[in-house]
Every structure is written in C-alpha cells, then in structure tokens.
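#help-structures

NK: newbie question. if I give both the sequence and a SMILES, will the prediction place the ligand too? trying with zinc ion
OV: yes, paste both and it writes out the complex. here, I ran yours:
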Amino acid sequence: MKKKAEFERNEDSENDSEEQYKKTGDLNVKHFSRYGEFLVSFELSKHGWNVYSPMYDEYIDIIAHKYACAKCGKNWAITPSLVCSNCHKDFSKTQKSNIIPIKICNKCKTKYKGNVIKCKKCNNSGSENFINIPTCDKCHGEVKLVNFVCSCGSKEYKTKFRTIQVKSSRIEYKNEKSKNTFAIDHKPRDIISCEHHYFIWCLIDDLDKPHFLIMSVNDFVKTMGGSMKGISFLKDQDRQHFSSKDFGKWKGFANRFDLLE
Ligand SMILES: [Zn+2]
Ligand SMILES: [Zn+2]
Ligand SMILES: [Zn+2]
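OV: that's the protein plus ligand as structure tokens.
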C-alpha cells in the first residue's frame, strides 16, 4: 500500500514515473518463474558458465556448460589468440587492423606490403603464387593463432556440464502482512539422481533484490532429512517455508555458486 505522501507527490509530478514503477510482486506466477530462470542464467554467466535453455521443460530449466583448466580449475578461454610470435604483442581484441599483410613471391622471394597478385620483378602472377604472412606492426614478426595456455602452465582443459532446476519464491504474505518467509516446493520427481544435477533457488526480497541458494540434489536430500519420507512430500504437497532473513536450515547454500564446480 502506498503512503499518502507518495500519492500527493504523484499527483504533482507530470510524468508519473513513480506510479508506473512495478515490482516483481506484479508479475503473475508463470512470468515470475520465468523471471527467476533468467536471473539465475545471468548470475551463472557471471561465474563463467555458458547457459542453454532446453526445448521442453523436463525438470531441467537450464543447462550450463564451461571450460576449465584440467589442472587448477580456473576458467579457460577456448578461442585462440592472435599473437606476434616474436614480441608476443596480442592483436586479438582491438588491434586486428594493425596487422600488416605481407606477400612473398614464391619464385623470386620479393616481399610486398598489401594485396599484390603480380610480381613486379619476375612477372610471376596469381594469388596462389604468393605466400601470405600476417605481420606485427611493431617488430615485423609473424602473427599467429595461439591456443590458450593457463596461467598455471597447463595446456589441458576439461568441459563441465551441469543441469539445473530453478525454483523461485517471493516473500510470503498473510492478510497483507509479511510473514518474513520464503516458500519452495520440490516434488519427489525432482529428485534426479545425477551428480551433475543441481537446484538453484531464486529468492526475491521485498526490495526486489534476488538471493540465490545453490545445492546439489544430495545436499537437498541431506538437509531435508526425515521430511523426505513425510507423507506431504510423497504426496506432492510439501512446501518448505523458511526465514527470509537467514534462510533457516538452508542458509549454508546462500550464494554457493562454487558448489557447481
Ligand atoms: Zn590452470
Ligand atoms: Zn611483434
Ligand atoms: Zn617474383
């Protein structure tokens, strides 16, 4: 509910921007669940994951994938760099236009700068008769495609895949009064027994700020304890209500994106 002062301010203002401001509470249930999946996706991207959306909803909302160093686990750059083989100047990002193309006649070995298809010295012609060498503008060394090497020295990487089910919750209210709780409902069919499957809970507080709880299926089962055998869980009627302040027994999973690694 809006305070009286706020209404008055809106009446005064010309463009009513405050009146138009909406919160996640205004999203319907379906859109809110999609909203949570997007927030989780962006958050995963920050942690170096490439995120994919399955064609059909089969208890997996997101597939996440990344390359990591096989030795130290650091994020791996899969695309090769354009580097001068002599002075190691990196042309990959913004410097590409500074690479100087050199053509060498394969008969008399005369060097030309730029696009040449006929040798002025020996009349050799045709692009196939010239060797093309991209060179460094600083030292004239050859610019080559170089595969990534980790700062730990490793040349080996591994590919990781994770499947993720996202559950989202807003603060629970009763008679317009905040209960200061979130509610998440997992069903027995969600308990996919794959070590690469995870749950991510996206919890939106009253300031519209998201909080993420990350857990493996095993973590979930362990934390649930005896409730896993509870009738309400087995009958799809279980809802986990927990404090929106400290996340109750789930607090250990807050922001634990490292668990996905
Ligand atoms: Zn490494
Ligand atoms: Zn160079
Ligand atoms: Zn020539």
